[in-house]
Every structure is written in C-alpha cells, then in structure tokens.
Write a structure and sequence with these properties.
It is a single chain. The chain has one domain: Rossmann fold. It contains eight helices and seven strands; from the N terminus they run E-H-E-H-E-H-E-H-E-H-E-H-H-H-E. Helix 1 packs across helix 8, helix 3 packs parallel to helix 4 and helix 4 runs parallel beside helix 5. Bound molecules: NADPH dihydro-nicotinamide-adenine-dinucleotide phosphate and 2-hydroxyethylsulfonic acid. The site of NADPH dihydro-nicotinamide-adenine-dinucleotide phosphate (NDP) has 30 residues, from helix 1, helix 4 and helix 6. The site of 2-hydroxyethylsulfonic acid has 5 residues, from loops.
C-alpha cells in the first residue's frame, strides 16, 4: 500500500551498503526515490522491492562521467524533478597499503569517484535544490576526513575534500533554504571492505571480526534524522563510530 508522497530524494550509490539502506529507510517512509548506481540489475531489484511504498525512478549512472550526470538530470521525468534531498553517497576505497606500493590507477579511481564524481552530481543538482522551499545535501565523508591512519593516503585525502567542500557550500548558501551536512562514519559493515581489498573475504573478515561495527541501517537512520530537522537547523557534520572503535595515539617511530 503506497503511503502519501513525501519529497524526492536522489541517492548515488544506491546499489549497496549505506545507499541501499537509505533507499529502504526513506522509501518506506513514502519519500519519492531517484536511485542511481552502475549496477542496473540491483537498481531494478530495489525498485521492485520499494515500489509498494513509494514512487521510484532508477538511472544507471557512473558519477565519474560528467556528461552522463548532466544527461541524467535532463532526462528526469517531470514528477521527479523537484529534488529536495541529495545523498552524495557513491564512493570507494581501493587498497590500504603503504603509498609507494599502491596503484596509481587506484588513486585516480578514488579521486575520480569520491571527489570528481561528487562534484559532478552536486554541480548538476544545485540549481534544482536551490529552487525548493527546503533542501538538504548529505555528503558521505568519513572519519578518514578528520583522522590519519597508515594506508589511508588518497582515500582519506579524498574524504577530507568532501568534508571541506561541505563546509564551503555552507558558506555559499547560508541564509538560504539549502542545508549541507558532512556525514563522517567510522567502521561500518558493507561491501566497502570487499571492494577495498579486491574481493578478499579473509581480509574483510579480519576487519570486522571481534568488533560490533555500524550497520548501513544505522547510517540510514542518521540520514533521515538529518533530513527531517526543522528548516532553520543545519547539521554541519556528524562523526559517528561504533563503540568498538576510538581514536588511536599519535604514532611515534623509534630507531
Ligand atoms: P559499498 O561498497 O557497500 O557501496 C558503495 C556504493 O557506491 C555502491 O552502491 C556503488 O555502486 C557506488 N559506486 C562506487 N563507484 C561508483 C561510481 N563510479 N559511480 C556510481 N556509483 C558508484 O560501500 P558503503 O555503503 O559502505 O559506502 C558508501 C559511502 O560511504 C562511500 O562514499 C564510502 O567511502 C563512505 N564510507 C564508508 C564507510 C564504511 O566503513 N563502510 C565509512 C565511512 C564512509 P555501483 O558499484 O553499482 O556503481
Ligand atoms: C571508511 C572508514 O576508517 O575505513 O571511510 O577509513 S575507514
């Protein structure tokens, strides 16, 4: 049974993890959904699952392709054009080795996805978001935006860009109905660590074994809370970790 239609949310990277959980959370509430990601079959499955709750439009999109992003926005059906919430979630880490042993291709992929892709989508959607009476951008940054760890080099730097970009957008749009949040999760269980380690299930298990990590549904609940704040409130940033995680000491290397 479809509930009454709430505003439209566009989610990048809706095929897995945080993005898919957000689609379910917002969709079950009755928000209209624009779901994007590269894996079309997963988008179709999710649309099938959620169409009993809400209006759903899917679009197969690689956020790195700026022309494809523009095409996606131009092709939006009329009933999905009034986007009020943008969840810039698509992103990835590749590898966690020491910098000089890392692949330059992996570095480029992280930069092109986490930075260029997020900028492509934001630039295309800002005019629409600014036309709405109330609108929200939630950018998926990370604890790696704020803190260092060995092997984070380009991934962490790309997420630092996301956090600072979010703050700078706040400066541009202060006093307007557009709110911007940098959401900065720590250890969270999703396909993220499979992607990071090239599908290596043992490494994936090592990351999570003995911990009680955040789940995508936890992050989706936080996203919904951010979006549903009264219009005069901007949540600037949220850094969130599982209780199994905390900061480490500064590194001291002794000779
Ligand atoms: P998942 O790997 O489960 O999901 C990543 C999503 O990003 C997928 O839907 C994938 O879709 C999409 N994606 C990747 N590359 C592209 C691309 N070029 N174009 C479009 N979509 C793309 O990871 P999470 O859900 O955990 O991660 C979501 C976000 O949260 C990322 O930005 C990540 O950096 C960040 N994050 C994750 C944390 C974690 O520990 N899991 C903690 C902090 C932040 P598809 O492959 O179908 O294109
Ligand atoms: C993902 C969290 O700690 O693996 O952004 O960098 S971490």
């Amino acid at each position: 049974m479809m509930t009454s239609r709430l505003p439209t949310v566009l989610i990048t990277g809706a095929t897995s993890g945080f993005g898919r959980a957000a689609a379910r959370r917002f969709g079950e509430m009755g928000y209209a959904l624009i779901l994007t990601g590269r894996r079309q079959e997963r988008l179709a499955e999710l649309a099938d699952e959620l169409s009993q709750h809400c209006a759903v439009y899917t679009y197969s999109l690689d956020v790195r392709d700026s022309e494809a992003v523009v095409d996606m926005v131009q092709q939006l059906p009329q009933e999905f054009r009034n986007i009020e919430i943008l969840i810039n979630n698509a992103g990835l880490a590749l590898g966690a080795g020491v910098a000089h042993q890392s692949s330059l291709d992996d570095w480029h992929t992280m930069i092109n996805t986490n930075i260029t892709g997020l900028v492509n989508v934001t630039h295309s959607l800002l005019p629409i978001l600014l036309e709405q009476p109330k609108s929200t951008i939630i950018n998926l940054a990370s604890i790696a935006s704020n803190w260092c760890y060995p092997g984070a080099h380009v991934y962490g730097a790309s997420k630092a860009f996301v956090a600072q970009f979010s703050r700078n957008l706040r400066s541009d749009y202060a006093g307007t109905p557009l709110r911007i949040t940098s959401l900065e999760p720590g250890l969270s269980e999703s396909e993220f660590s499979l992607v990071r380690f090239g599908g290596d299930q043992d490494k994936y298990n090592q990351i999570y074994n003995g911990t009680n990590p955040l789940q995508p549904e936890d992050i989706a609940d936080i996203m919904l809370w951010i979006a549903e704040q009264p219009s005069h409130i901007n949540i600037n940033s949220i850094e969130v970790m599982p209780t199994s995680q905390a900061w480490d000491n500064f590194k001291v290397v002794k000779s």
